[in-house]
Protein backbone atom coordinates (compact mmCIF):
# COMPACT_ATOMS: atom_id res chain seq x y z
CA UNK A 1 0.00 0.00 0.00
CA UNK A 2 1.25 3.50 -0.77
CA UNK A 3 0.32 7.12 -0.10
CA UNK A 4 0.81 9.88 -2.65
CA UNK A 5 2.67 13.06 -1.79
CA UNK A 6 2.24 16.22 -3.86
CA UNK A 7 4.41 16.18 -6.96
CA UNK A 8 6.11 12.95 -5.95
CA UNK A 9 5.86 9.21 -6.39
CA UNK A 10 3.76 7.20 -3.98
CA UNK A 11 5.02 7.05 -0.38
CA UNK A 12 5.51 3.36 0.40
CA UNK A 13 4.09 1.99 3.65
CA UNK A 14 7.14 -0.28 3.99
CA UNK A 15 9.39 2.79 4.06
CA UNK A 16 7.26 4.31 6.79
CA UNK A 17 7.46 1.07 8.82
CA UNK A 18 11.24 1.06 8.40
CA UNK A 19 11.41 4.68 9.58
CA UNK A 20 9.39 3.87 12.72
CA UNK A 21 11.58 0.88 13.54
CA UNK A 22 14.78 2.90 13.08
CA UNK A 23 13.35 5.74 15.18
CA UNK A 24 12.42 3.39 18.02
CA UNK A 25 15.74 1.54 18.02
CA UNK A 26 17.93 4.54 17.26
CA UNK A 27 20.08 2.42 14.98
CA UNK A 28 19.84 1.46 11.29
CA UNK A 29 21.73 -1.81 11.79
CA UNK A 30 19.38 -3.02 14.55
CA UNK A 31 16.37 -1.95 12.50
CA UNK A 32 17.66 -3.94 9.51
CA UNK A 33 18.19 -7.01 11.69
CA UNK A 34 14.67 -6.89 13.14
CA UNK A 35 13.06 -6.27 9.74
CA UNK A 36 15.16 -8.86 7.92
CA UNK A 37 16.68 -6.31 5.54
CA UNK A 38 20.22 -5.49 4.54
CA UNK A 39 21.40 -2.28 6.18
CA UNK A 40 21.77 -0.69 2.74
CA UNK A 41 18.05 -1.32 2.15
CA UNK A 42 17.12 0.50 5.36
CA UNK A 43 19.37 3.42 4.43
CA UNK A 44 17.85 3.60 0.94
CA UNK A 45 14.27 3.49 2.27
CA UNK A 46 14.96 6.28 4.74
CA UNK A 47 16.62 8.40 2.05
CA UNK A 48 13.66 7.85 -0.27
CA UNK A 49 11.29 8.95 2.47
CA UNK A 50 13.40 12.04 3.20
CA UNK A 51 13.44 12.95 -0.51
CA UNK A 52 9.65 12.64 -0.69
CA UNK A 53 9.14 14.78 2.41
CA UNK A 54 11.95 17.26 1.60
CA UNK A 55 13.31 17.05 5.16
CA UNK A 56 16.02 15.26 7.07
CA UNK A 57 14.34 12.79 9.41
CA UNK A 58 17.49 11.89 11.32
CA UNK A 59 20.58 13.68 12.52
CA UNK A 60 23.54 11.39 11.80
CA UNK A 61 26.75 11.24 13.79
CA UNK A 62 28.68 8.23 12.56
CA UNK A 63 26.67 5.13 13.43
CA UNK A 64 24.59 7.03 15.95
CA UNK A 65 21.29 8.49 14.77
CA UNK A 66 18.71 10.63 16.54
CA UNK A 67 15.45 12.02 15.26
CA UNK A 68 15.54 15.54 13.91
CA UNK A 69 12.77 17.99 14.80
CA UNK A 70 11.05 17.06 11.53
CA UNK A 71 11.60 13.38 12.27
CA UNK A 72 9.90 13.68 15.67
CA UNK A 73 6.97 15.44 14.02
CA UNK A 74 6.65 12.89 11.21
CA UNK A 75 6.89 9.96 13.67
CA UNK A 76 3.45 10.86 15.04
CA UNK A 77 1.99 10.81 11.53
CA UNK A 78 3.81 7.55 10.78
CA UNK A 79 2.23 5.80 13.76
CA UNK A 80 -1.22 6.86 12.58
CA UNK A 81 -0.58 5.83 8.96
CA UNK A 82 0.58 2.35 10.02
CA UNK A 83 -2.25 2.02 12.51
CA UNK A 84 -5.03 2.82 10.04
CA UNK A 85 -3.44 0.87 7.19
CA UNK A 86 -3.39 -2.22 9.44
CA UNK A 87 -6.96 -1.61 10.55
CA UNK A 88 -8.16 -1.33 6.95
CA UNK A 89 -6.38 -4.52 5.89
CA UNK A 90 -7.75 -6.38 8.90
CA UNK A 91 -11.28 -5.06 8.35
CA UNK A 92 -11.49 -6.34 4.78
CA UNK A 93 -9.92 -9.70 5.53
CA UNK A 94 -11.94 -10.71 8.56
CA UNK A 95 -12.15 -14.47 9.02
CA UNK A 96 -14.54 -14.32 11.95
CA UNK A 97 -12.40 -15.76 14.74
CA UNK A 98 -9.33 -13.88 16.05
CA UNK A 99 -6.06 -15.44 14.96
CA UNK A 100 -2.37 -14.60 15.03
CA UNK A 101 0.01 -13.67 17.83
CA UNK A 102 -0.60 -11.73 21.04
CA UNK A 103 2.58 -10.61 22.81
CA UNK A 104 2.19 -9.73 26.48
CA UNK A 105 4.71 -8.49 29.03
CA UNK A 106 3.94 -9.45 32.61
CA UNK A 107 5.59 -9.21 36.01
CA UNK A 108 6.60 -12.44 37.73
CA UNK A 109 4.47 -11.82 40.82
CA UNK A 110 1.33 -11.54 38.67
CA UNK A 111 2.11 -14.91 37.07
CA UNK A 112 2.37 -16.35 40.59
CA UNK A 113 -1.25 -15.41 41.38
CA UNK A 114 -4.75 -16.32 40.31
CA UNK A 115 -4.41 -13.83 37.45
CA UNK A 116 -2.65 -16.58 35.51
CA UNK A 117 -6.14 -18.04 34.93
CA UNK A 118 -6.90 -15.10 32.60
CA UNK A 119 -4.31 -16.31 30.12
CA UNK A 120 -5.19 -19.99 30.39
CA UNK A 121 -8.91 -19.31 29.92
CA UNK A 122 -8.18 -17.10 26.92
CA UNK A 123 -6.15 -19.88 25.29
CA UNK A 124 -8.99 -22.33 25.87
CA UNK A 125 -11.45 -19.99 24.15
CA UNK A 126 -9.26 -18.78 21.27
CA UNK A 127 -7.34 -21.69 19.77
CA UNK A 128 -6.16 -19.68 16.75
CA UNK A 129 -4.28 -17.13 18.86
CA UNK A 130 -0.69 -17.80 19.89
CA UNK A 131 -0.23 -16.26 23.33
CA UNK A 132 3.37 -15.21 23.99
CA UNK A 133 4.06 -14.20 27.61
CA UNK A 134 7.37 -12.70 28.74
CA UNK A 135 8.41 -11.97 32.33
CA UNK A 136 9.67 -8.38 32.60
CA UNK A 137 10.20 -5.51 35.02
CA UNK A 138 8.10 -2.34 34.88
CA UNK A 139 10.83 -0.46 33.01
CA UNK A 140 11.30 -3.25 30.47
CA UNK A 141 7.55 -3.60 29.93
CA UNK A 142 7.01 0.11 29.24
CA UNK A 143 10.01 0.28 26.93
CA UNK A 144 8.98 -2.78 24.91
CA UNK A 145 5.35 -1.63 24.69
CA UNK A 146 6.51 1.73 23.35
CA UNK A 147 8.70 -0.01 20.77
CA UNK A 148 5.85 -2.26 19.63
CA UNK A 149 7.36 -5.52 20.91
CA UNK A 150 4.38 -6.03 23.23
CA UNK A 151 0.69 -5.64 22.42
CA UNK A 152 -0.24 -5.47 26.09
CA UNK A 153 1.48 -5.30 29.47
CA UNK A 154 0.44 -6.26 33.00
CA UNK A 155 2.15 -4.13 35.66
CA UNK A 156 1.99 -4.07 39.43
CA UNK A 157 2.93 -0.53 40.38
CA UNK A 158 1.73 2.87 41.44
CA UNK A 159 -0.57 4.59 38.95
CA UNK A 160 1.12 4.96 35.55
CA UNK A 161 -0.12 7.77 33.30
CA UNK A 162 1.37 8.37 29.86
CA UNK A 163 -0.30 10.19 26.97
CA UNK A 164 0.52 7.40 24.49
CA UNK A 165 -0.75 4.56 26.69
CA UNK A 166 -4.23 3.41 27.74
CA UNK A 167 -5.03 1.62 31.00
CA UNK A 168 -7.72 -0.88 30.05
CA UNK A 169 -8.22 -2.33 33.54
CA UNK A 170 -6.95 -1.61 37.04
CA UNK A 171 -7.10 -3.88 40.09
CA UNK A 172 -6.04 -2.64 43.57
CA UNK A 173 -3.57 -4.88 45.41
CA UNK A 174 -2.25 -4.84 48.99
CA UNK A 175 1.46 -5.57 49.48
CA UNK A 176 1.72 -7.65 52.65
CA UNK A 177 4.34 -8.57 55.23
CA UNK A 178 4.24 -12.22 56.26
CA UNK A 179 6.11 -14.74 58.38
CA UNK A 180 6.06 -18.48 59.07
CA UNK A 181 2.97 -19.63 60.95
CA UNK A 182 5.20 -20.76 63.83
CA UNK A 183 7.13 -17.49 64.03
CA UNK A 184 6.73 -15.46 67.28
CA UNK A 185 5.35 -12.51 65.29
CA UNK A 186 2.52 -14.68 63.92
CA UNK A 187 0.61 -14.45 67.20
CA UNK A 188 1.17 -10.72 67.74
CA UNK A 189 -1.03 -7.83 66.66
CA UNK A 190 -0.25 -4.23 65.80
CA UNK A 191 3.45 -4.75 65.35
CA UNK A 192 5.47 -1.57 64.83
CA UNK A 193 7.70 -1.17 61.80
CA UNK A 194 10.64 -0.77 64.18
CA UNK A 195 9.88 -4.18 65.71
CA UNK A 196 9.63 -5.74 62.28
CA UNK A 197 12.99 -4.32 61.24
CA UNK A 198 14.70 -6.33 63.97
CA UNK A 199 14.01 -9.43 61.87
CA UNK A 200 15.93 -10.56 58.75
CA UNK A 201 14.12 -10.21 55.42
CA UNK A 202 13.83 -12.28 52.27
CA UNK A 203 12.99 -9.85 49.49
CA UNK A 204 12.50 -9.55 45.76
CA UNK A 205 15.40 -8.26 43.66
CA UNK A 206 16.62 -4.66 43.94
CA UNK A 207 14.62 -2.37 41.69
CA UNK A 208 11.33 -4.11 42.46
CA UNK A 209 8.84 -1.27 42.90
CA UNK A 210 7.25 -2.30 46.20
CA UNK A 211 10.65 -3.14 47.68
CA UNK A 212 11.79 0.37 46.74
CA UNK A 213 8.72 1.87 48.46
CA UNK A 214 9.50 -0.13 51.61
CA UNK A 215 13.20 0.77 51.59
CA UNK A 216 12.37 4.45 51.10
CA UNK A 217 10.10 4.37 54.14
CA UNK A 218 12.79 2.64 56.21
CA UNK A 219 15.38 5.25 55.17
CA UNK A 220 12.95 8.12 55.89
CA UNK A 221 12.62 6.83 59.45
CA UNK A 222 16.37 6.64 59.86
CA UNK A 223 16.22 2.86 60.18
CA UNK A 224 17.99 0.00 58.40
CA UNK A 225 16.86 -3.46 57.33
CA UNK A 226 18.73 -6.72 56.97
CA UNK A 227 18.10 -8.62 53.75
CA UNK A 228 19.61 -12.12 53.90
CA UNK A 229 18.29 -13.23 50.49
CA UNK A 230 17.00 -11.40 47.43
CA UNK A 231 15.48 -13.21 44.47
CA UNK A 232 12.93 -12.44 41.75
CA UNK A 233 11.03 -15.66 42.32
CA UNK A 234 7.84 -15.50 44.37
CA UNK A 235 7.56 -19.21 45.19
CA UNK A 236 11.09 -19.33 46.60
CA UNK A 237 10.37 -16.38 48.90
CA UNK A 238 7.19 -17.98 50.24
CA UNK A 239 8.92 -21.31 50.85
CA UNK A 240 11.90 -19.70 52.56
CA UNK A 241 9.66 -17.62 54.82
CA UNK A 242 7.57 -20.69 55.71
CA UNK A 243 10.81 -22.33 56.93
CA UNK A 244 11.40 -19.38 59.29
CA UNK A 245 14.37 -18.01 57.38
CA UNK A 246 13.04 -14.46 57.48
CA UNK A 247 10.18 -12.02 56.90
CA UNK A 248 8.68 -11.65 53.44
CA UNK A 249 6.98 -8.81 51.56
CA UNK A 250 4.82 -9.76 48.57
CA UNK A 251 1.48 -8.88 46.95
CA UNK A 252 -1.32 -10.42 49.00
CA UNK A 253 -2.74 -12.13 45.90
CA UNK A 254 0.37 -14.37 45.71
CA UNK A 255 -0.07 -15.63 49.28
CA UNK A 256 -3.53 -17.23 49.04
CA UNK A 257 -2.36 -20.84 48.69
CA UNK A 258 0.21 -20.65 51.50
CA UNK A 259 -2.35 -19.01 53.79
CA UNK A 260 -4.86 -21.72 52.97
CA UNK A 261 -2.29 -24.39 53.80
CA UNK A 262 -1.43 -22.62 57.05
CA UNK A 263 2.31 -22.39 56.37
CA UNK A 264 2.47 -18.59 56.71
CA UNK A 265 0.71 -15.79 58.59
CA UNK A 266 0.15 -12.17 57.61
CA UNK A 267 1.74 -9.45 59.75
CA UNK A 268 -0.27 -6.33 60.50
CA UNK A 269 2.02 -3.33 60.92
CA UNK A 270 0.82 -0.28 62.83
CA UNK A 271 0.00 2.70 60.62
CA UNK A 272 1.77 1.31 57.59
CA UNK A 273 0.40 -0.31 54.46
CA UNK A 274 1.71 -0.47 50.90
CA UNK A 275 -0.98 -0.45 48.20
CA UNK A 276 -0.46 -0.61 44.47
CA UNK A 277 -2.51 -1.77 41.53
CA UNK A 278 -2.32 -4.23 38.67
CA UNK A 279 -2.63 -2.17 35.49
CA UNK A 280 -3.41 -3.65 32.08
CA UNK A 281 -1.96 -1.22 29.53
CA UNK A 282 -1.78 -0.97 25.73
CA UNK A 283 -0.44 1.65 23.34
CA UNK A 284 -2.80 4.06 21.61
CA UNK A 285 -0.21 4.59 18.86
CA UNK A 286 -0.91 1.19 17.36
CA UNK A 287 -4.06 -0.54 16.19
CA UNK A 288 -6.02 -2.85 18.45
CA UNK A 289 -5.77 -6.20 16.66
CA UNK A 290 -8.57 -8.76 16.79
CA UNK A 291 -6.63 -10.96 19.28
CA UNK A 292 -5.98 -7.93 21.50
CA UNK A 293 -9.62 -6.83 21.31
CA UNK A 294 -10.76 -10.34 22.24
CA UNK A 295 -8.39 -10.41 25.21
CA UNK A 296 -9.48 -6.99 26.46
CA UNK A 297 -13.12 -8.06 26.19
CA UNK A 298 -12.34 -11.12 28.32
CA UNK A 299 -11.08 -9.08 31.26
Automatic annotation (TrEMBL):
It comes from Eisenbergiella tayi. Keywords: DNA-binding, Transcription, Transcription regulation. Residues 11-68 form the HTH lysR-type domain. The lineage of its organism: Bacteria, Bacillati, Bacillota, Clostridia, Lachnospirales. It comes from the Bacteria. CDD domains: PBP2_LTTR_substrate. This is HTH lysR-type domain-containing protein. Belongs to the LysR transcriptional regulatory family. The keyword Transcription applies. GO terms for molecular function: DNA-binding transcription factor activity; transcription cis-regulatory region binding. It holds the Pfam family LysR_substrate. InterPro entries: LysR_HTH_N (IPR000847), LysR_subst-bd (IPR005119), WH-like_DNA-bd_sf (IPR036388), WH_DNA-bd_sf (IPR036390).
Amino acid sequence: MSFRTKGQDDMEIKNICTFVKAAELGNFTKAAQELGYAQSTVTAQIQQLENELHVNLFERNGKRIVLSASGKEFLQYAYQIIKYESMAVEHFSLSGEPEGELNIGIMETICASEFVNLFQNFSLNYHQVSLNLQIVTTHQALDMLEKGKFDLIFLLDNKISRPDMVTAREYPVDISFFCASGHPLASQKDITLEQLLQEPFILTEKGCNYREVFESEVAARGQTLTCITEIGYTRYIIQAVSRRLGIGLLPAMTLSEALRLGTISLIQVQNYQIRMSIQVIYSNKRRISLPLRAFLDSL
